[in-house]
Amino acid sequence: MLNIKIMCVGKIKDNNLLSLIFEYLKRISKYAKIEIIEVEDEKVNQNISNLDIQIIKEKESNKVLNKLNKINKPYIIALDLQGKNVSSTQFASKIQNISTNGYSTIVFLIGGTLGMSDELLNKSNEKICFSNLTFPHQLIRLFLCEQIFRAFKIINNENYHH
């Protein structure tokens, strides 16, 4: 069974959002082993300098890298605004191709409010973007879970995707 790990900066405090995420995790568990790994986010002040932005991105990304380095040979996909836009069917094909090409673990990276460091982005096998619109990283976690579920429905030719 494929292992999927979603590595995120920050915790979700909204119980309604958590409920939706857990519902998708439950649905996905029929197809793959899925786990969310959270690292603590850094405090971001309103009047923040460019230097402070880089420092925060580095600190948060280093926490993710520490967790990432403990996973044996994962295929890493960073969710990034500069990444490639993919459709749901392309996303499903991507998951299927990764799993048939010798990878047993896919790790999706979701950065914090300020994004990810270049080092973390460069460690990824690829970068994808869900939308040219900007969304809170908490919502992206929900979107990702829904799209992973949709991908498995597409892969298995099950009714869900229209």
Query: Strand arrangement, largest sheet?
Result: 2-1-4-3-5
**Cα radius of gyration in angstroms:** 16 Å
Task: Indicate the low-confidence ranges by residue numbers.
Answer: none
Helix count? Answer: 5
Which range best describes the helical content: under 10%, 10-25%, 25-40%, 40-55%, 55-70% or over 70%? 40-55%
Main beta sheet: 5 strands, parallel
Instruction: Tell me the span between the first and last alpha carbons.
Output: 26 Å
Q: Class, according to the CATH hierarchy?
A: Alpha Beta
The secondary-structure class comes to alpha/beta
The name of the CATH superfamily reads SPOUT methyltransferase, trefoil knot domain
Categorize the overall geometry: globular
SSE ordering = EHEHEHEHEH
- How large is the share of residues in beta strands? 15-25%
